[in-house]
Amino acid sequence: MRAALWFLALFGMAVAIALFAGNNQGTITVFWPPYRVDLSLNLVVLLLALLFFTLHVASRALAALFAMPGHARSWRIQHQERGMHVALLDALSHMLAGRFIRARKAAEMVLARETAMTRGGETLVYSGRLRALAHLLAAESAQSLQDKVAREEHFRLALDQASHHDAQGTREAVQLRAARWALEDQDAQAALQWLDELPQGASRRTIALRLRLKAARMARQTPLALETARLLAKHRAFSEVAAQGILRGLSLELVLTAYDPEQLQSVWNQLEGAERLTPEVAIAAAQRMLKLEGNVDLARTWLLPIWERMVEHPGALTEAQRISLIQVLERSFATASDTPEAEWLTRIEKAQMANPADSALQYLAGITCMRLQLWGKAQQLLKQSLPRLQDAELERNAWAALAELAERRGDVEASTRSWQNAAKAATARLV
CA–CA separation, 403 vs 397, rounded Å? Predict the structure, then answer.
């Protein structure tokens, strides 16, 4: 369609010229005393067109002639830039491929070419960023080669170049690499210091949070590590299973480092709801509270949600978690007053009646009745639980409790037999 329109326009112009020039009788007279020159109007128009074309070609030729030095300069700059870009790509590819010596040489080649251009009076608008990246690649290669002197030299130069206006975005990369190098050197405090110097937005990026988590764990700063792990979990930096495992481990570490009941309660208040409902964390916190001789009622309050979950959903807790929960409750009953034990006895009886085949619940009910001086019921529950107890420690404790009950009745033979069975269970546990 466009070609047809061009042809139509061309034919129209030809017709217009034919109409104008075919019967044009006009003349132009030029007086140049003592001469007179008569020229056809068509000839004058043709001469003017030729003159315009000649002047146009001449001006273009002169412009091209005067632009040759500029073109030569641009070609030299482009040639140098291509060389620097190729060297920079070589440095990246060599470093990723593990050829660190070649990577450092390629990065130094970039710096040499850029320096030659600067000395020649040519300055690139991104020269600061280019030098910073080249120094950073050279420093990374030196770090891989364990050349600390070369690494520090290139790192210092990269940090200086990153302070220029055109390389502000590169400074964050340099700081992150410095934090990673500090972690590789087992210097957690230096890594945390570099991460603290990052801008607020950069410090909340996933890579920065991962580095902070590693540094905090290395420096034994569990509260900071737990807070960082929570942010990473919210950013979905880990899988759900991995996030739960990391948070559980850090929460346990934080609980186990409490040195008095007040600090332990403060640590518990700092935990989030999901962390408090983790069986391992709640059981460990209660165990720690009992070991520190703190508030037993508070420890059992921490265990209550775990107990309710175990009762309502029998498969929610693993066997090891159920045994640990029962052992902690047993220990709390041995050190507390009767009133809370009576409340817990009601809960334990309901759970045991709802699941009469659970030997662990029978054992716990028997121990609780024994603490409440319900001797007959305690003996009955303990005897019923013994044949089905799978845990050696619970079995030993059950035999020891039966021995105490026999001594209380004055039955020396039954007491001796129970102590012997308790010793066998303890020996089996050691084996």
Answer: 10
pLDDT in tens, 139-175: 999 999 998 999 999 999 988 888 777 666 788 888 9
The residues with which 27 forms a beta bridge, in sequence order, are 40
Distance CA 288, CA 283 (A): 9
Question: How far from chain centre, in Å, is Cα 124?
Answer: 35
Instruction: For residue 31, list its beta bridge partners.
Output: 36
CA 204 to chain centre: 9
CB atoms within 10 A of CB 183: 18
How far apart (Å, rounded) are the C-alpha atoms in residues 328 and 133? 58
DSSP structure string for 116-163: HHHHTT---TTHHHHHHHHHHHHHHHHHHTT-HHHHHHHHHHHHHHHT
Per-residue pLDDT tens digits for 52-109: 999 999 999 888 888 888 777 788 878 888 888 899 899 999 999 999 999 999 999 9
Q: How wide is the angle at C-alpha 321 spanned by C-alphas 318 and 322, nearest 5°?
A: 85
Q: Is the peptide bond before 34 cis (omega within 30 degrees of 0)?
A: yes
The tokens describing 302, both together, are 């921490």
Asked if residues 393 and 359 have their Cβ atoms less than 8 Å apart, the reply is no
Report helix, strand and coil shares of the chain as percent, to nearest 5. Answer: 80, 5, 15
- What is the largest distance, in Å, between two alpha-carbon atoms of the chain? 163
| Domain 337-431 in this protein, CATH class | mainly alpha
Half-sphere exposure of 15 (CA within 13 A, CB side): 6
The torsion of the CA quartet 149, 154, 155, 156, rounded to 10 degrees, works out to 90
Please give the Cα distance from 288 to 252 (Å, whole number): 10
Whole-model pTM?
0.74
Task: Establish how many alpha carbons lie within 13 A of residue 392's alpha carbon, considering only the half-sphere containing its beta carbon.
Answer: 9
Token pair listed for 384: 């019923």
| C-beta of residue 128 within 8 angstroms of C-beta of residue 161 | yes
Q: Which amino acid is at 247?
A: L
What size, in residues, is the chain? Answer: 431
Element (H, E) at 39: strand 35-40
List Cβ neighbours of 36 (8 Å cut-off, separation of 6 or more): 29, 30
